[in-house]
Amino acid sequence: MLDITLKVSGMSCMHCKHAVESAVKALPGIEKVEAKVEEGKVEVSFDPSKVSLEQITSAIEDAGYDVER
Questions:
Q1: What is the H or E stretch that residue 66 is in?
Q2: What is the rounded distance in angstroms from the CA atom of residue 69 to the CA atom of residue 64?
Q3: Distances from the Cα of 42 to the Cαs of 47, 50, in angstroms?
Q4: pLDDT at 29
Q5: Spatial separation of the C-alpha atoms in residues 47 and 57, rounded to whole Å
Q6: CA-CA distances (angstroms) from residue 62 to 1, 20, 48?
Q7: Cα–Cα distance, 12 to 38 (Å, whole number)
Q8: How far, in Å, CA of 39 to CA of 1, rounded?
Q9: Where is the HMA domain (predicted)?
Q10: Domain extents for the chain?
Q11: Would the pLDDT of 69 be above 80?
């Protein structure tokens, strides 16, 4: 498993937290995801043989949030 922390802007409430976590959890190979609204961070543990960082980033952006690259 690989652990990463992404800086995500646009999250401001519990709905945002749920939307981001749900989008990432829907991907294959995700072990854990936790959005920290106050910190503007999303922590993800995933299997890089099943899902790429680009797919995770795209899922967050498709949910309406910006990921700093």
A1: strand 66-67
A2: 16
A3: 16, 19
A4: 98
A5: 15
A6: 24, 9, 20
A7: 7
A8: 23
A9: 2-68
A10: 2-68
A11: no
pLDDT in tens, 1-41: 999 999 999 999 999 999 999 999 999 999 999 999 999 99
**Residue range 48-68: mean pLDDT, rounded:** 97
Whether residue 53 has pLDDT greater than 90:
yes
With a cut of 80, say whether residue 62 has pLDDT above it: yes
Residues in the chain: 69
HEC profile for 2-60?
A: EEEEEEEECCCCHHHHHHHHHHHHCCCCEEEEEEECCCCEEEEEECCCCCCHHHHHHHH
Q: How far is CA 5 from CA 14, 55, 61, 66, in A?
A: 19, 15, 15, 14
How distant, in Å, are the alpha carbons of 12, 45, 50 from that of 54? Answer: 23, 14, 12
Query: Taking the domain 2-68, which CATH number applies?
Result: 3.30.70.100
